[in-house]
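Entry:
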Amino acid sequence: MTYCPLVEPALASGMQSKLPSMAGLRAFEATARHLSFTRASIELNLTQSAISHQIRNLEELLGASLFDRVGNDIRLTDAGIEYLGPARSAITELQVAADRAIGRRQRDVLTIACLGTFAIKCLLPAMGGFMKAHPEIRLRVRTLTPFAQARPDDYDVSIQYGLDADWPGFSAHRISTEEIFPVCSPILLHGQHPLREPADLRHHFIVRTTSPLVLRDDWPLWQRKAGIDDLGFAGEIVCDLLYPTYQTAIEGLGVALGRSAVVRTDIANGRLVEPFSIRMPSPLGYHVVYPQQHANLTKVQRFVEWACGSLASDLRS
């Protein structure tokens, strides 16, 4: 037997790791989210007394109260607020690890990682065709978090946005060309200040998609192409993601810059209109991206064929 001087004294002194149970963490997280033992018990399919018992055990383990009881209401204590973030992270990490382990054993499950706006506007509306063609493949869709690096072992194939050379070491196939142009609600197009020419934008709010991590704002480039470099707008609304940007435009609050692939359906359905016929080609586009070690998986091959064929054709229409 190998002697380990760091472990033996700890065993001799009876030291134990204070690790909470998963049941306790889930009971705490659900109760903290709902601020209700009753709602937590319904969500987790447990009795209210079982939820209370799990939280009481967790509080005893931590040596601190996680909730204050105020009449019929509860609220997080300072200790509860501090513990909630790590508890949620632990639950999420374990769930992702479990999904990953299960996914490796289930060869008929295809995990697709996709940017949220593209998933809602383009991928999911078209997935019926893939499902009909390949009923033997079960699907799992993960939303890619913008600006965060996804782990290749968390998905089989992904759809991402960028330049052709943005994924060294991966297989990548472009499925869309990209044009950038203003879009707005029909309410604005024919409203108090109609949009007949680019200079009419001076009467309107524009919607920018930008954040501290997104440095590219295409409005100045489009203004230059339209010959209105120095035009001032009535104001601006800034969103950090595309989906709220387009929803802001749909609600008639301002004019946004649309990406041709993801606004085509809203234009076809009349939720958005293109007020001018001035489009700016972009070097960026949507790509099917996957780790090279997944290239021989039949389920990945089937999806790539469909994405580069049927889905790409839809995006061009």
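The first strand starts at residue 67 and ends at 70.
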